[in-house]
Amino acid sequence: MAISAPETYAVTVFLVIALGIFTRKLTLRVRYLFAGQGAVRRWDHIPTRVKNFVVYGIFQRKVAREWYAGVLHSFIFWAFVILGASVVEITAQAYEPGWRVALPAIAGVPLNGPLYLAQDAIALLAAFGVGMALYRRYVIRPKKLMHEGMRDATIVLCFILGIVVSLLFYNAAAIAGGTASLPGWKPLSAAIADGVMVRLDPAVWWHVFWWTHVVLLFSFLAYVPYSKHMHIVFAIVNTFFMDLTPKGALKKVDLEKSEGFGVNRVEQLSWRQLLDGYACTECGRCTDACPANATGKPLDPMRIITNIRDTLNDQGRAIVQGHVEGLPDMFQTVHSEEGIWACTTCYACVYECPVMNEHVPKIIEMRRNMVLTQGKMPSETVGAMRNIEQNYNPWGIGWDQRGKWADGLGVKTMAEIVASGEPIEVLYWVGCAASFDDRNRKVAQAFARILRRAGVRFAILGPEEKCTGDPARRLGNEYLAQTMIIANVETLNRYGVTRIVASCPHCFNAIRNEYPDFGGTYEVVHHSQFLEELLRAGRLKPTKEVLQFLTYHDACYLGRYNDIYEEPRDVLYRIPGVRVVEMRQCRDKGFCCGAGGARMWMAEPVGEKVSHRRLSHVEETRANAVATACPYCLIMLDDAAKTKNREDIRRFDIAELLERSLS
Ligand code: SF4
Ligand code: SF4
Question: Model-level pTM greater than 0.85?
Fold first, then answer.
C-alpha cells in the first residue's frame, strides 16, 4: 500500500497552502502583539515561570477546577501532544512509504510499541472527550458557553473527531493489509481491523482513510488561525508570561513621566495584555464568576478580552503602519464605560481564567483613562474623592476626628508612644471605615479591647492616619491615591513602624502589596491572622458560649487576593457555641459583597444589588447570622439585611464574636 506520485504532488500542494495560511496568520498575530506599547517585564524569575508553564500550561491545573471540562479538555489536549508523532508518520507516507518515527529500545522493547499503544488509547479518549464536549454544549447547555463562539467550537470539535477516528481506521486498514508496524501495540485499531476491515479491501480503505486524515489535518491547520482555537498556540505561552507580582498590587503609574494616563486604544496595552486575547478559549468562566454580570450589570469580562483580540485583528494593520487617527477607541470596540464602572475588582474573573488572563488591570487602565485623561467619573464618586482630598477619608468627616472611636479605651497614638518612649509590638491600622462608620467603630472598639485583654502593646496613628488610597486607586484616580500613599509611607517610616495589623482587607492589601512600590515595606497582618496568632499563643482564651449558627463571608481582598481563608474560620471555630455552615460559594469561589473597586461609593441602579444576591446565599444556608472580617462587607451585608427586611440574620465581625466569648 503506497501513495502514488500524483497523490504525493497533490498532498504537497495542500500541505504548502495550509502551512502557508497558518504561518502567515501566526506571523501577523505576533506582529500585532508587538505593536503593543505598554511596558511589561516578564522575563524575570525564569524557574518560577517554567514551573507555572508546566503546572498551568502543560498540566492545565486551572482547567480542572471544573471536573467535567477538565476531563474532556485533558483528553483532547493530550491527544494533540501524543498524536504529534503519528501526524508526522502518516504525512511521511506520501514521500517515503513505510517510514516510521524511530524511537530507541529499552530492555529490548522498542519504544515505538508503547507510543503506538498510547496513540491508540488517546485517540479513543479524545473521541470520547469530543462526545463529552458536544453533550455539554448541546444538551447541558451552560449559559457561559451559549455565545456566538458555539459554531466555531463545534467546527473544531468535528475536526478533532474526524482526525482521531480517521487515524484509528487508517491504522486498522494498515493492520488488515499487513503493512502496519508493531500491530500488537495497537489493540483498538486491531479490533477495528478484525471487526470492520475483514469485509473490505484494506488497500482501498487504507487510501480512503489516509486521504481523509491528511485532508482533515491540513484543513484544520488552515482553519485554526481564523478561529478562537489559535489559543492552542497562545494559551500555553500565556502561562509562562503570567504576572508574578502580588495579586493585589496595581501597577504604579509614573505621574511625572507619563504623557497620557490609562488606555483607550489597544496599542497602548502591552504585548502581554494583548496576548490575553489570543490565549482566550472563550470558556466563559470569567463572565460566569462575575458578580456584576450575574446581577444584570452591563459588564462581561470575557468580552473585554475577546473584544481586545478582535479590535487588534481589525485595526492591527493600521496600527503597525501608524495610521490610528480616527479609529474607534476601546470604549467603542472593547467595552462600554458603564460596564467598566460596574466592576467591583473582586478578582473572580482572573482567578477562574484557565489561561491566566488578566482582566482587572485592563479595567483599571480604562478607568485611569476616563478619570485622569478624560476627566470622567460617576457623579456619586465625586464627593467621596473630594472628601479624601480634604479630610483624607471618603466619609468626609473631619480628619481630626479619626481617633474618636477610641475615646475612653486607653488606646495610645504613635505620637504619645514616641513621647513616652514605650516600645510597641504592633501598629493597629484602623482604616477609614472603622474610624468613621458607626457600625464599624464598634468593631474597632471590640478589637482594641481584645488587644488590651491579650496584653498586646499597640498604638494607632490617630489623626495622622490617612485613607490608604485604595478606593481612589481602584476608581482610576491614581493621582489622589499616590498623594495618600506617599503621605502614609512618610508617617509610618518616620515612626519606624515595622509591624502593622489592619482590620480592613483593603487597607491590609494596599499596605502589604502596594506600599513597597512607594518605599513602605512592613510586615502587615490582617486582624484575623493576628487574632488567630493570639489564640494559638494562649494569650486569648475564649470560654464563654456564644450560641450562634452562622456562615462566614469571604472578603475578596482577604481571600482571592491574599489567600487568607483559614485564619478567620479558625477564630470562629475556637469560639465555644459557634456553629459554622459554609455558603455554596465560599473560599476562592466566594461571591463579592459589591463594595470593592470603589463601588461602595457608586449607585447601583441596574439589576439586582450585588449585596442582595450575597445575602440570598446566606439565606440559603438557613444560618441566623453572617460573620465577616471586612468593614466594607459588613456595611454591605448590613444594608442588604435591612433593605431586604431580613434583620433577623445578624451581622458580625469575627472580632465582635470573639470578644463575647472572652470571660
Ligand atoms: S473583577 Fe469581579 S466584578 Fe470585575 S470583571 Fe472581574 S469578576 Fe467581574
Ligand atoms: S478570559 Fe479566560 S476565563 Fe474568560 S473566556 Fe477567556 S479563557 Fe475563559
Answer: yes
